[in-house]
Design a protein that fits this description.
Three copies of one chain form a homotrimer. By secondary structure, the first copy, chain A, is of the alpha+beta class. Chain A has helices at 28-38, 65-77, 91-100; strands at residues 11-17, 23-26, 43-48, 54-60, 103-109, 112-113, 119-125, 131-140. The relative contact order of chain A is 0.35.
């Protein structure tokens, strides 16, 4: 599938591991490292989760309780046990994934991510603990 | 508006028809055909629904009951009949459309869509049956 | 941060002011002006809110009650007062922001936005009144 070699300036994979079933893992630093090592000046970073029970979210990272409130909200909204048809027992995680979405895009200018003052980037785990990947594709403007 | 001729390698329209009011229609095969006939090697595919009562979703396609669980969830969340202001009687469909979103973006590498093992692409109908269009724009990286 | 000068054809900032706590502000005209003054023929417009208590939405703009129904729905779904952990009292606005999402992307063809007949673009304020910015980045295809 994806063979993102070191020589490919535009394609990157971030590996991470979640420790709980539901967890917001901040990846802002990792994404910034991708930009800075890519020598990429202007365009957008496209950040993609290839999984069906996780998502990518941009929200406040200064106070970690914001992401916790979002996860508590989602857990009440789509409880784990309900009369779901899918027999694997993780339909709630698929639902949360589709609400948050599998990707986000962020502007890059002057070799820097253009995030708002309070914004951070999160990998949202909804069916952990698991090993996960995040793909980053840089697109010139 | 859009005049996507055959000669235009980067712009494509997929026509489809929904058969129920609420329906998840998988379009992974159609999107893959667009990529392969475009001779497009590296970038992203931007997949867009120009309608206000539908959406584009990426989630598990291996077991169709996942998309059915998501639609059941959305129907309980935003029931058709409530004290809505909009008089056309389909406010629930507009709400579902904004939760799922009108578009998704997917990486293309080596002339192939980079989807996760279990991921498929769905046109989400929330106010059918109708004739619908999906626009696909290929963007070089 | 962003220093989008007049000479930069691809980067634009739209300033706006919300007047209520929760408000859908249509910005379709402003985005169209950005495209037309940029002399930009083909690609996508990436529209981004750098705030954590707002979002960008595409939905019906012909009848303003559609956006009002969506905001009423979101307000019932995530009420302002609940047992949230975040102490600023606006966790509901962060939640709404993550449901709607901080950005949308729209195709540009022949120097025009490719929107469906009924679609408009909205800045969704969830914790106003405030001064807000919307970034627009044009990306060639």
């Amino acid at each position: 599938m994806l063979k993102f070699g070191r020589d490919d300036r535009l394609n990157h994979v971030i590996n991470l591991r979640s420790n709980k079933r539901i967890e917001a893992i901040e990846i802002t630093k990792e994404i910034k490292e991708v930009i800075s090592k890519s020598n990429f000046s202007s365009g957008v970073a496209f950040i993609y989760s290839p999984h069906t029970t996780s998502g990518i979210m941009i929200n406040e990272s200064y106070d970690p309780s914001v992401a916790e409130d979002i996860n508590s909200f989602l857990s009440k909204l789509a409880p784990k046990d309900r009369d779901y048809k899918h027999l694997e027992g993780n339909s709630d995680a698929h639902i949360k994934s589709s609400i948050i979405g599998p990707s986000k895009t962020i502007i890059i200018e002057n070799e820097k991510l253009v995030l708002g003052t309070w914004q951070g980037i999160f990998f949202m785990e909804f069916d952990g603990p698991r090993s996960r990947n995040v793909y980053v594709k840089l697109i010139k403007s």
